[in-house]
Amino acid sequence: MRPRSLVLVLAAFASGFLIARALPTAPRGDLPRDQSAAPLRTAAGVPPAERGPEPAATPDRLTSEETRNIEVFRQASDSVVFITSIVDPRDFFFDASRIPEGTGSGFVWDRDGHIVTNFHVVEGAQRLSVTLADQSEWEAEVAGVAPDKDLAVLRIAAPAERLRPLPAGRSQDLQVGQTVLAVGNPFGLDHTLTVGVVSALGRELRSPSGRTIRDIIQTDAAINPGNSGGPLLDSRGQLIGVNSAIYSPSGASAGIGFAVPVDTVSRLVPQLIERGHIEQPGIGISLLADHAAARLRLEGVGVYEVVPGSPAARAGLEGVRLSRFGRILPGDQIIAVDGRATKSAEDLVHAFETAGVGTRVTLTVVRNGERRSVEVGLVAVR
After folding, report:
1. pLDDT of res. 55
2. What does the alpha-carbon distance between residue 243 and residue 259 come to, in Å, rounded to a whole number?
3. What does the pLDDT look like over 246-285, one tens digit per residue?
4. Which helix (H) or strand (E) holds 352?
5. Do domains 77-162 and 281-380 have the same CATH topology?
6. 38 contacts 53 by C-beta, under 8 angstroms
7. What secondary structure letter does DSSP report for 25?
8. What is the Rg, in whole angstroms, of the alpha carbon atoms belonging to the chain?
9. pLDDT for 212
10. Residues 325, 327, 332, CA angle at the centre, nearest 5°?
């Protein structure tokens, strides 16, 4: 190449380089959406470093079912909380220190700061803390407990704008095979989702108090340690149960989980908020133990004693009495409530609880081999 040509090429290259350097650099906001940083949340009180990015748009390649599950999880996550039970031990050298004793899940019930969880999550705790979805932590007090149903309600002083209650559905219409989603904090991790189906209905579960919880929902959605107290949702994101236990010899999920049905929760939680305990419906009788009734070959549930002035007394029910020779004479035997058989004391208590205080029920009663129907009103007996 001739010297003059070489000089011209070098001059053109240098000119182009200077022009490129002079051009303005495109701002980051002008990049395509999938290459720019997602905006941060503006949750009050949450440091920017702790704020995660907003969820990305759902990709088109997902199925409609996957899209629905993602949306349900996103909406429910704001309502699910992390619960820590704390003990305050003291020793000879040190003052009290806060030591976490157990963890579990719960969910926001209303904007007054009420949190629903399992009784066994808070049982024995000296102090309790609730961490909301925005990572703010609040000391909690127990508003009410129902050990017989493994339910508890906590109260925190969080402002209403931080609280997002879960919408409650119904459990009486559930069908085996329908999709359910369990949200919680297993092993102390952040919100997690497991998906499954209703695998059985009408199961029974032993409560922390030893009583049987009826009409339990069985699901194959994994319920791991830490999920206890979290919500079980239907495909529309409505609350249908409170995750309570798993069946597993190893202590990890083995495909059989249990949840307290939302119909029970919706009936009892307002009582726990108002009174701190649930009203036990009854008619003013004490019952023979089931093994005693079986030994006497009684049909149904044996009435041991009738409280004077009670609805049972006004209805003419009679308890056990002694003959003139000291022989025990069986009292009335209740064999059905509103047409549903009662074969044990637990059956009778469950029938009364289902009906509720203030309602009237029809008892089928056997006395001396003769059956009769008795209408009686249910009252609060404790």
Report:
1. 59
2. 4
3. 655 555 555 688 999 999 999 899 999 999 998 889 999 9
4. helix 345-355
5. no
6. yes
7. P
8. 31
9. 83
10. 130
Alpha carbon distance 79, 71 (integer Å): 14
Instruction: List beta partners, residue 258.
Output: 218, 245
For residues 67-83, give the mean pLDDT: 93
Beta pairing partners, 372: 365
Homologous superfamily (CATH) of 77-162 is Trypsin-like serine proteases (2.40.10.10)
Secondary structure (DSSP) of 142-167:
EEEEEGGGTEEEEE----GGG--PPP
| The two structure tokens encoding residue 41 | 């949340």
Catalytic residue annotation: 120, 150, 228
Residues in the chain, total: 382
Q: How far apart are CA 71 and CA 77, in angstroms?
A: 10
269 secondary structure, DSSP code = H
Q: Which residues, at least 6 apart from 164, have a Cβ–Cβ distance to it below 8 Å?
A: 78, 79, 108, 133
Q: Give kind and range of the element (H or E) at residue 10.
A: helix 3-22
Strand partners, 233: 181, 239
* CA 343-345-348 angle, 5° bins: 80
What does pTM read for this prediction?
A: 0.72
| DSSP conformation letters of 180-239 | EEEEE-GGG-S-EEEEEEEEEEEEEEE-TTSPEEEEEEEE-S---TT-TT-EEEETTS-E
Please check whether the domain covering 281-380 is classified as CATH 2.30.42.10. yes
**CATH class of the domain defined by 179-275:** mainly beta
Query: What contacts 280, CB < 8 A, 6 or more positions away?
Result: 352, 353, 380, 381, 382
SS3 at position 365: strand
Question: Hey, what amino acid is at 380?
Answer: A
**Cα 266 from Cα 166, distance rounded (Å):** 12
Span 339-366, average pLDDT? 93
What does the domain layout of the chain look like in residue ranges?
A: 77-162, 179-275, 281-380
177 CB neighbour count, 10 Å cutoff = 8
Residues 369, 4: Cα–Cα separation, whole Å: 128
Nearest to 151 by CA among 94, 231, 253, 46: 231
pLDDT at 332 exceeding the cut of 60? yes
Q: How far does Cα 152 stand from its chain's mean position?
A: 9
